[in-house]
Structure formats: structure tokens, C-alpha cells
Amino acid sequence: MKKKLSIVDIANALNVSKTTISFILNGRAQEKRIGADLVEKVMKYVAEVGYKPNSLAKSLRTGKSNTIGLMVEDISNPFFASIARLIEDRAYKNGYKIIYCSTDNDTSKTQDLINMFRDRHVDGYIMAPPEGIEEDIESLIKDGMPVVLFDRHLPGVKTDVIEVDNLFSTYNATRHLMDQGFKNIAFVTFASHQTQMMDRVRGYQDAMKSNGLRPTIVKEIVFNQDEEQIMGPLRDFFKGNPDVDAILFGTNHIGTCGLKIMHEMGLKAPTDIAVISFDDYDVFKLHSPPITAIAQPVEEIADNVITVLLEKLNDRSSSPKLQSIILKTDLKIRNSSLKNAI
Amino acid sequence: MKKKLSIVDIANALNVSKTTISFILNGRAQEKRIGADLVEKVMKYVAEVGYKPNSLAKSLRTGKSNTIGLMVEDISNPFFASIARLIEDRAYKNGYKIIYCSTDNDTSKTQDLINMFRDRHVDGYIMAPPEGIEEDIESLIKDGMPVVLFDRHLPGVKTDVIEVDNLFSTYNATRHLMDQGFKNIAFVTFASHQTQMMDRVRGYQDAMKSNGLRPTIVKEIVFNQDEEQIMGPLRDFFKGNPDVDAILFGTNHIGTCGLKIMHEMGLKAPTDIAVISFDDYDVFKLHSPPITAIAQPVEEIADNVITVLLEKLNDRSSSPKLQSIILKTDLKIRNSSLKNAI
Prior knowledge:
The structure is a homodimer of 342-residue chains.
Chain A: H1 7-14, H2 18-25, H3 36-49, H4 55-62, E1 67-72, H5 78-93, E2 97-102, H6 107-119, E3 124-127, H7 134-142, E4 147-150, E5 160-164, H8 166-179, E6 185-190, H9 195-210, E7 217-221, H10 228-240, E8 246-249, H11 252-265, E9 274-278, H12 282-286, E10 292-295, H13 298-314, E11 324-327, E12 330-332
Parallel strand pairs in A: 1-2, 1-3, 3-4, 4-5, 5-11, 6-7, 6-8, 8-9, 9-10
Antiparallel strand pairs in A: 10-12
Helix pairs in contact in A: 1-2, 5-13, 8-9, 10-11
Domain HTH lacI-type (chains A, B): 5-62
Pfam families (chains A, B): LacI, Peripla_BP_3
GO molecular function (chains A, B): DNA-binding transcription factor activity; transcription cis-regulatory region binding
């Protein structure tokens, strides 16, 4: 184990005042108009020497618990798992610990978890919220608790949100399939009224409409923890729609289930059915053929979530500005959606 | 939202006493000698009606926080993410919330997290522990805190442990490669002194020795968050060892990196190199060819972890019995390790 360095050690080593180091480490550089060069120098040094802020001392000094509650839909989903991990890393470097839980998209479980986090005196909340907890979030905000939502928002709830451009992402992916000459394009997704999921369906529908008369084929499957309950309806869909020549899957999970059915039925992409899925991960990259995917910028999402939350934690003014940040996705075009791919 | 059911409602519906229902829901059925049939009947009913224990009321009654701290190595690793999720589900059904964190295998971060959990008054700890926290765990145990370790143990620390039979698993996988006629079998893994990793190397070495004179080829790669720092040495290994005709990878992560290098270099399994990896997941199942994998019984691990912890939470006697449970893995033989596979 390394000997613990103090802020004084860092200040001496870099010949910078202790106060400046402290502002930088507490995410207050911008507020205190500290130059980006100096911030970079300090953060680089801190990373090199492996400095970890002494959170207990800090907590006693500031009256804060230095913990942040993070709620994702399902920690076993690779998208949420990687975001949670990145948020945890970035928070830890800033002296905050993250405690996280899965909401299961269950309103009453989420309310339970919010109460638990309140009891544990977390300093702030990061959530990919299910529907139905609008009042709970408003009550947190009324109590002065910073709340940052990501992945989706709750219409009517005024707080900071980090999202991706879901509508454009599926619009763009659908156009790509059309450009490749696919005609009977289906959108297969989990049934959901969450904003990000509604936008994904609309992006597909808008692209289909923009191209004329074709009927849209939207298959919504009810989510179930038991994968066989997802595979059954999916299998029926493939069997009942032999004319479909391309599918856009709405999430990585449904996309992976779709690939399993295709393997089972001996259907190859792109010759039998072209395939694109939302969310990129190793399953799609290593598949033969590799699967075209709408990659979400997970690092950027994590960076923005934690930056916005730290700003709010450090600026408890009565009317803080609200940020709604929309990040771009990246359509990774691979052989599964290319008409003339070998 | 469903109307909240109480224990009384359940007792009335099933015509069973309230006390019995309570014992069952608190994991005390065995201790109270309640028959397995009745336990199953109650748990099935509870699952059907979606009963959630009222944790606040229970906490007031019992003086417990009804939260459990769970520390895994890296929540973005699919093995830990799925275990964490299953533990969370099972704990929640028993009226406990799980708050979790990644230790990053970092001793000082883990100590920090233990302190944080202590401050938050968790009732018990579940950990896949890094090395170097032996004293911290012993101090928790001395204070009467239930601590259940999983995935690995800490030599000398007396507490409950749930593990798999790592040594036999790699022994068996290596024997399978030998039976298929592969001769130059390498074991590629992350450098680690953790018990599960040491056992995996030994299982491979024992199998090699049992078969005569062949030299063992063990390549240990230093773990790095930056995947390119793993890919570089792995690429060098493939290039520097053209005679290797089979590789057993020590974890899902290193196995996936290995497959990426094989794709990059145009090496096919099993014709160029046969492949087996520890840990099974969608990447291996959907790969062409499907990858032979040592599947850990994640559901069973989660069930045992939570059962043992609940038993300890409900039995605070001064000298509780310690359990060391070793579960079996399942070698899922697929085309990547079959000599005559197409």
C-alpha cells in the first residue's frame, strides 16, 4: 500500500497553493476561474501518485457524507454496468463514493430505494428513472437534493438530464438500411413508455414515412427476467414475418436475444435478414458477421453525469441553472447491414 | 402500483400462522424446522402476488438497517454484474436492500468502502475480496458483523465462503483438450495472487503434469483498465508462440480479448488454435464457432451467498458455525475445442 499523500504534499510538489489544489480536487476550478492548464497538471500528478482524498476528514469538515446514490434499471445489463463503473471511477477520483442499486423499472422498489438512500444521507442522486416516481423526485429536489437523470427523462420534472439523441439515432440507422436497398424493415423492441424508448420507435417511424408508403412493422415484446419469455414471442415474430428483410433492435438485450433466435433458425445476416442493434458491445463486435450497432458514448455520458452532479453539489444556490445535455451516438456500420457484404 | 400486502394477508390467504410466514420470509425456516413444502408454497405465493416486506416498519421493530453492503471486483465485468443482480433480487425478496461498489482490487479503496459501509450501518457484508484487507475483515468479524466472502477466500481469515472448484475446473478443461489430441496447450490469464486464480493455474499445471513431460506454457498478463494495455502483450504472445495449438483462458475478460486478437490475426478456432475460456456468457455462446466455456453456477452462487448471510443475520450467537461451500462448474463443450469440428 502506498503512503497516503495529503493536499499539502501535492501543493509542495507542484509549487501551487493548498487552496488552489483543494478547489481543483473538489471540482470547483471553473467556479474559481482556475486555468485549464493548471487543472490538467494537478489532475495528471494526482493520477500519477495515486492520491485519494481523505473522505472522512473532508466529511467532518464539510458536513457531507461524500456518497452519491446511483440507480440504474438493471446492473446486469452491460450498458448500465459500464456506465455505473465509469461514474464510480470518476466520482472516486473526486472524493465521492457511489452506492448503487437496480430499480428493475419497478416504481415501488425505486421509491423504497430512494428512502433507503435518504436514510443513508447520500449527498446526491443519479438515476435512470422508471415512470411513476415523478413526485418522489420533485420532493427530493424541493428538499435541495441534487438529482441528475440519465438515459431518459420524466416529462414535467425539472432537473438536470443527460441523454443521447435517440430519435435521430434510429432515424439514421433506418435510413442506412433503406440506402442499402432493404425494403421490409422491422423495429423490434421492449414495450415501454419511457422517453428514450418512445423516441427510438419514432425515429424508425419517421424514417419509414420519409420514404413513402411502406407500412411500419413495430414488434413490442414485454420484458421478462426469464429470457425464455422473451425468446418465445421473438421466435413467433421471426416465423410469422418471413418477408422482413431487415431488423432494427431497440436495445442490446433484445438484439442479443434476436441473434440467438437467428442462430437457432439458421438465419444469416445480412443475406437472410440485415441486422442493426441499439447499444454496442463485445457480443456485436465479435459476432460473425460483426453486427452494425448504434454505439452510445458511455464515457461521455458518465463524464457529463458526474460533472453536472459535482457542479450542483458545489453550488447550492437557490436557483441553480438546469442542464439538459443531448449527446450524439455513433452508427458503427459493420457487415450485418451491408447488402453486398460477403 | 400494486396495493401493498401484509404478512397477515399472506397468512390468511394460505391459512398458515403469521409467525410461520414471518420465519419463512426472514430465512429462518430451517432453524425453525418448517417443512420445505410449506416454504416453497409460501415463496411461490409471495412471488405471484409480488409481496414486498415493509422494510421501514421492520427496521424500527428490529433495530436493523436491512441493508447489505456488496463489494465486487468490477461491476462492469459480466460475471460480477450478473451475480450482483441475482444477489440483489434474492435479498430484496427477503426484505434487504443491497448497496454495492467496485473494489477495483485496490486494497486502500476497499478499506475506504468498508468504512463507508460501517458509517452507513449496513447489517452485513458480501465481498469478493482483494488481498491485503485481512485485518479489516477480521475487525468486522470481531465487532460481530456477518461477512460472507465469495469467488475467492483470504487464507487465514475465518469466515463463510462460497467458491467454485477452480482447480478441478481447469484440470478438467485441460484434460478435455488433451483428449482431443491438442499438444501445445497454453494457459493465458491475468497475473494475480488471489486464491481462485492460483487454483486455476494449478489445475492446468496438474493436468499437464499428469500427462507426462510436456512443458507448461503459462502467460500472465498484468490487468489494466485500458484494454489496449492488455491487447498488446496478448498480441505478442500469439505472435511469439506459433506452436501453441490450444489455449485455456483464465477469465471471461482475457478470453474475450484473446478472441479479438484472433479475429485481428485471422486465426480460427479450433483449426488454428482450440479455445476454452473460464466463465460463460453471451459473447462465447454467440461466437462462430461457439466457444467452449467453464460455466460458473451464478444462480447457485448468489443463492448460497444470500442464504448463508441471512442465516448469520438471524443467528447472532457468539460462536456461529462457519460454512465453506464449494460449488461445481460446468464445462460447456462447444466447437471451439473439438478437433474434428467443422
